[in-house]
């Protein structure tokens, strides 16, 4: 299977929402991907709040990716103990499939913060970074990062975030226009994000 174009899309996915899905579809087209692997973080080391248990975030990602065969759930960060460093994931996946071409898909907020990631220079040597705009995101402060060529993913601005969805559920507001139907019903059935 060498030469495959594989996109990697990591996140906390707490919960996965419509901007994630739109970004992922756009990446399939703009990067001509054979597959896009959604990678829920096991222990997202940069998030300070309490995170929904991994099994529930994984189940919601399964709902979000249903129906698109090029979307694949990648469980490696859920299976690893310790903090989820993207570089460890990339090294492990590349060792398994040495001939593939790798793209790392991020929103502009994550792109700006990339120099805080573990071994980010090695990461950028291993993947093509693919960046989508995100409302409110800053331009990277690092000139070294800005000098690295990136592939653009033409996502129109989408002002959706998992934080807003959690806040809306906690406030009893509807989220049906913000998440895929399967995710909305999972949140409802499992009473996620409710106060208390
Ligand atoms: P939170 O609000 O809890 O911080 P989030 O909505 O940013 O969550 P993550 O799971 O942290 O969701 O994001 C995974 C990836 O998706 C990141 O690369 C992030 O930049 C990207 N992303 C999320 N929402 C958007 C959006 N509205 N536009 C572009 N990219 C997005």
Overview of the structural elements:
It contains 9 helices and 6 strands; from the N terminus they run βαβαβααβααβαβαα. α2 (54-65) runs antiparallel to α9 and α4 runs parallel beside α6 (120-126). The longest helix has 13 residues, at 18-30. The mean pLDDT is 95. Helices cover 38% and strands 16% of the residues. It has helices at residues 18-30, 54-65, 76-79, 86-96, 108-112, 120-126, 143-146, 162-170, 181-189; strands at residues 5-11, 35-40, 71-73, 101-107, 128-132, 151-153. The chain has a 6-stranded parallel beta sheet with strand order 3-2-1-4-5-6. The protein has 196 residues and is an alpha/beta fold. The protein binds adenosine-5'-triphosphate (ATP). Adenosine-5'-triphosphate binds next to α1, β4, α5 and α8.
Spell the H/E element sequence. Answer: EHEHEHHEHHEHEHH
The CATH architecture can be given as: 3-Layer(aba) Sandwich
Ligand identities: adenosine-5'-triphosphate
Number of helices: 9
Query: What's the overall geometry?
Result: globular
- Text of the CATH class: Alpha Beta
Query: Which residues sit in consecutive blocks of at least 5 with pLDDT less than 50?
Result: none
Helix content: 25-40%
Strand content: 15-25%
Which secondary-structure class do the elements indicate?
Answer: alpha/beta
Number of self-contained structural domains: 1
Oligomer: single chain
Q: Biggest sheet, strands in spatial order?
A: 3-2-1-4-5-6
Number of strands: 6
Question: What gap, in angstroms, lies between the N and C termini?
Answer: 49 Å
